[in-house]
Amino acid sequence: MNRSRLGCIRLQRAHEAPACQVFGDEHFGQQQAGNGHRCRAQAMAVVGAIPTGFAREQDRKIVVIGASGTLGRAVVAELEQGGAHEIIRVGHTQGEQQLDITNADSVAAPFDRLGQVDAIVSTAGNLFFGPLTKMTAADFNVGLQDKLLGQVRLALVGKHYLNDGGSITLTTGIVGQEAIAQGANPTAVNAGVEGFVRAAACELPRSIRINAVSPTVLTESMEAYGPFFPGFEPVPAARAALAYRRSVEGVQSGRVYRVG
């Protein structure tokens, strides 16, 4: 067997090691990711193929809805790194453009002005936290109309304004999998958004992708939301923002990237 063939086999086996599974994993575990990157570097060193640079696609026109919020600001900062992308900040009352995600005409208006874009990122959506014993249908409807149908509306309207190969990234949260006290509405809403993402990915045309990011409670939000999340380890918004970059600049669709 020649040296080139032997090197290829070694590289393949190294990538099949458990520590390398991070490259196909949806979970952004900090320790796991660190191990995965070391493993990849070691595997490529076997054949002397450490890359000196990676040319990624540039100059995407990205609309970030909820850009003035804690998570939205971190996502904008992450996507602005390197200056490769044009970021349009959109909010309910702030930003370069404004919209109301609960109204289809309001959602379409800024896109009519902006024209075609390459990516739509949503970090917006309100929920209702409260005890089930006192909850009314009107209370529950807050999350349904805002974070669930609001983000679905962004996808349904926004897809018409995406270039071929564009992407949609929505936001859910850890309570979609981990129930908490007074969290019936957030759990139902987040699970609904994730279900929509998985199904929509099967039908979107023109190679348009759709994913969701599901962060745990943010470090910056612990003062307000910490009592709802006893024993949960928070993550900084900047760490959660990495998953949005993965969704925008990556190739996967129908994924839920869990952070924390």
Description:
By secondary structure, this protein is of the alpha/beta class. The chain folds into 2 domains: 3-46, no CATH class; 61-259, NAD(P)-binding Rossmann-like Domain (Rossmann fold, 3-Layer(aba) Sandwich). The chain is 42% helix and 15% strand. It contains 8 helices and 7 strands. β4 (117-122), α5 and β5 (162-171) form a beta-alpha-beta unit. α4 runs parallel beside α5 (137-158). InterPro entries: NAD(P)-bd_dom_sf, SDR_DHRS6-like, SDR_fam. It comes from Ralstonia pickettii OR214. One of its GO terms (molecular function) is oxidoreductase activity. Belongs to the short-chain dehydrogenases/reductases (SDR) family.
Strand residue content: 15-25%
Number of strands: 7
Strand order of the largest sheet: 3-2-1-4-5-6-7
Low-pLDDT stretches are 3-50
- Globally, the shape reads globular
CATH H-level superfamily title of the largest domain = NAD(P)-binding Rossmann-like Domain
Helix content: 40-55%
Alpha-carbon distance between the two ends: 45 Å
CATH class of the largest domain: Alpha Beta
The count of helical stretches stands at 8
The arrangement of helices and strands along the chain is: HHEHEEHEHEHEHHE
Provide the descriptors you would attach to this structure in a database record.
single chain; 260 residues; alpha/beta; Rossmann fold; 2 domains; seven-stranded parallel beta sheet; 8 helices; 42% helix; SDR_DHRS6-like
Chain-wise SSE layout:
Elements: H1 3-15, H2 30-46, E1 61-65, H3 70-80, E2 86-91, E3 97-98, H4 104-114, E4 117-122, H5 137-158, E5 162-171, H6 184-200, E6 209-215, H7 222-225, H8 237-249, E7 256-259
Parallel strand pairs: 1-2, 1-4, 2-3, 4-5, 5-6, 6-7
